[in-house]
Amino acid sequence: MTEKPLQEHVLPFGRTCYGCGSENPRGLRLQSFREGEEIVATWQPQPHHVSGPGVISGGGLATLMDCHTCAAATEAGYRAEGRAMGEPPLLTYVTASLHVNYLRPTPLAGPLTLRAHVTAMEGRRVVVACTLWAEGEETANAEAVYVRVGNAPAGR
Amino acid sequence: MTEKPLQEHVLPFGRTCYGCGSENPRGLRLQSFREGEEIVATWQPQPHHVSGPGVISGGGLATLMDCHTCAAATEAGYRAEGRAMGEPPLLTYVTASLHVNYLRPTPLAGPLTLRAHVTAMEGRRVVVACTLWAEGEETANAEAVYVRVGNAPAGR
């Protein structure tokens, strides 16, 4: 496991983003880490993330999977260049598509675990697969496609 | 346009849900209405919904499209039965899949407009197409598949 979340290496996005910004007081503040061959996150839902009674919002899950797969794509982009995560010039990826399959209701009680890995890299395009787990069961999964949009100036 | 948002007809979900609950103080509080042959919503992003600078979070957009297409599926389910929206017993639909295409960055300044319509209904399954607009341009679209999971008890 890396010392700090992947998001903290790509500033300012990693501090401000609604899904994963560490300093967004009204965001979901997801934190993703490399663990072996995977990118992993554990996340605790709050009561306001509810959909139906006792079940977490599918949109909230999509938000987590979007930010988690973006972290995985970005980390893979740096590794492919033999550079440390976040090293200037920053690599920036945007989501081209996100396809979420909801397999069963995801309990609001949490905690949730997200596991992602890159399945394809081709030019500026990175494809990431993600599974989402609660109480030992896979409750949702996703495939996300990212496109590198060039180098952004380094953050603070 | 109906008198009150579609979500307000399906209680308690329409009051509590993270994406569209009218009484969720930390949710997105989307409100969807029937307008002619479409289900339409207008939504104003807040600063904390940011992703990159000046751009709204893709996960936030997925959340809006999830709740908006769910409202469209539910409304279609009631119409197919010749019943008024929200009439007990409540029809409940859950998202089976959500596929979002991000066509270009969606400005955080807003407002955003969502337009949805049902493209297929077969047994318990409803497919909904949704487009998302900002400053006169389509910036994202989605296809969502819903499954009716039976009748829920009527809310307050």
| Main sheet specs of chain A | 6 strands, antiparallel
Question: CA-to-CA gap between the ends of chain A?
Answer: 24 Å
Total E-strand runs of chain A: 6
Helix content of chain A: 10-25%
Order of helices and strands of chain A: HEEHEEEE
| The CATH architecture of chain A | Roll
Find the biggest chain interface: A-B, 42 and 42 residues
The CATH H-level homologous superfamily of chain A: Hotdog Thioesterase
Count of all domains of chain A: 1
Strand order of the largest sheet of chain A: 1-2-4-5-6-3
CATH top-level class of chain A: Alpha Beta
Oligomer: homodimer
**What is the residue-mean pLDDT of chain A, rounded to a whole number?**
93
Number of helices of chain A: 2
**Spatial shape of chain A:** globular
Q: Name the structural class of chain A.
A: alpha+beta
CATH topology of chain A: Thiol Ester Dehydrase, Chain A
Which strand-content bin applies to the residues of chain A? Answer: 35-45%
Q: Which residue ranges of chain A are poorly predicted, with pLDDT under 50 across at least 5 consecutive positions? A: none
The whole-angstrom Rg of chain A is 15 Å
What's the gist of this structure?
Two copies of one chain form a homodimer. The first copy, chain A, is of the alpha+beta class and 156 residues long. Chain A is 17% helix and 38% strand.
Structure description:
The structure is a homodimer of 156-residue chains. With 156 residues, chain A is an alpha+beta fold. The first copy, chain A, has a single domain (6-152), classed as Roll (Thiol Ester Dehydrase, Chain A). Chain A contains 2 helices and 6 strands, in the order αββαββββ. Chain A has helices at 13-16, 58-80; strands spanning 33-35, 38-43, 90-102, 112-122, 125-134, 137-152. In chain A, strands 1-2-4-5-6-3 form a 6-stranded antiparallel β-sheet, covered by helices on one side. The radius of gyration of chain A is 15 Å and the shape is globular. The interface between A and B is large, with 42 and 42 residues. β3 of chain A pairs antiparallel with β3 of chain B, so a sheet runs across the interface.
